[in-house]
Each structure stands twice: as structure tokens, then as C-alpha cells.
Amino acid sequence: MNIARIDLNLLVYLDVLLREKNVTKAADQLGITQPAMSNSLRRLRELFNDPLLIRTSSGMTPTEKAEQLQPQLREILSNIEKAVQPSADFNLEESDRLFRIMASDYAESTLIPALLNEIRDVAPNIRLDILTPSDVSFQDVEKGKIDMAINRFAYLPQSFHQTTVWRDNFTCLMSKDNPILEDFTLDSYLNADHIWVSKTGMGVGVGMNPGDIQRLGWVDEALEAIDQRRHIKVFTRHYQVAALLANQPDLIATLPKQAAHLHTDNDNLVTRPPPFPIVPIELKVAWSPLLHHNPGHTWLRRLIVEVAKQIIQESKI
Known about the structure:
The chain is an alpha/beta fold. It has 13 helices and twelve strands.
């Protein structure tokens, strides 16, 4: 087929259709009418000789052909975006761009303050809008509505770009008055009361089930590997709240070291290495291929990596 006979706008329409899986929503995003979107879908079906999207009980479902096309479409459109990007460099001193960043409580407290200090020095008019994992879906990141997501991810869509911010080990944070300090062993750890803290996923959260080890996360999975369980007294989604609760004389918070490091000036708190091995966590930043070649976005990603290296060096973790 002669490419000159193909309306390349149809590729943009197909990309949005495969993301939204809904003709009305796709039309709204593209700013066209629903009949126009339906007509474009008809033309796409003729072009690819495939239904592409099939109506099922759960909504519009992509065909096997459509699923194969989706990553190719994103790469094509990303390359087109790169080709039409202005050649001028991103002006740090004058830009007043607002970057929307989804960050877990852990990432927000350990990384963002140092990042903001660097931004203030080199790009004083840049602003940050920090959202929580519960505020954002993978679709928001994929569409470029959110500039990037910084978190510990159990799963990321294959189309996303990603890089590692750092890897972090765990430490036990507790009050200096906690009697467990007299004999800090695995047995005494298991007999103590614990603070659970985590929020690895995206979207609206749900309550925790203490018996669901797979959802409890790294610490409890590590204990399960040695056929042990701890007694969780309180569940929280905020690392700083967990650290505050650790001031109580009968509670232990097992946290990533970077989160615990923020409280080294608190004379009431002490740390101890966990009495069992825990796999280090990996903090990552992920972003949409639609933003991959954007000059301002590229600058911020590089700055995040540089700031993270400085934090690691200064904390000696």
C-alpha cells in the first residue's frame, strides 16, 4: 500500500482509541464528534483489515492485531513528536513550567526536598505539583497528564520509560526506651508490636488484611521466607507517620534506611539492623513515551538522578 494514500491522523486516532477503549472518550480527548470518531474507526478497520476493537460485556476489547500494533504506534508517534520538537534548548531561568509528579510518601519525603533545593538554584520559576499514588492511574501517566511517577513498582506497563533512582536497604526504627533493645533478636522482634507502612500500587487503596502476606510487602515476605510472621499493631500508608509512631516505647517500624535517616536528629529514636535478611527496595521514576524527548522533561529526569546520587553519598547508605 502506498503510504501517501494513508491519512496519518488515523494513527493518532487509533492510539487514543486503544488507550481509552471507548469511542466517546477518545472523541472527547481528540476534540472531535463521536460520529467522526466512529467513522475513523471504520476507516481504521478497513486499513488494517481487522476489527481492532470488539464490543464485549466488559467494554471495547482490543483484538490480537490491535495489541500488536499498540507498541509500534507509540514508537512511531513518539518519533514524530521528537522530530517536530523545537530545536531551542529548554530555558531554565525563564521557564515557569509546572511539573506534575506522582510520588509515594517515601519518595516525597526523601527525594523531593533535595530536588526542590536544586531547582530553586537553577530554575527559580519552575513549580512542582506532587500527587499521591491514590490520585493517579497508569493511564494518567501513559497519556502524559502526569509528567512522571516516582515509586517502588511491582509492575509497570512495557511501554513506559523508566530509570532507577536508588536501591535502599531496611533498618528498624524504635524508641530508645523500647525494652526490646536489651535483647534485640529475631525472637524478640517477632514477639514485639510493629508498625506496617507501604503503598506500592497506584489508584484508590483498600484496607489491609493481616493474613494476606503477598500484599503486605517486602518485610513480611522476607519473614514468610523463613516461616515467620510479625504482629502488626497499626497499618499506615505514610512513612513519616510510621517514624512518629516509632517514638512510642512498644512499637517498631521497619523502614527503608533513607526514610529512617530523616530522623537521625531525634534523640529519642535509635536504629538497629533487622535480625533477618530483607531484599533491598528499588525506587524508580517512570514516564510516558509521549514525553520522552521533551527538553524540559529530559532536564528534570537527569536532575532527579543527579540529586539522588548526592543523597546516597551524603547519607552513606
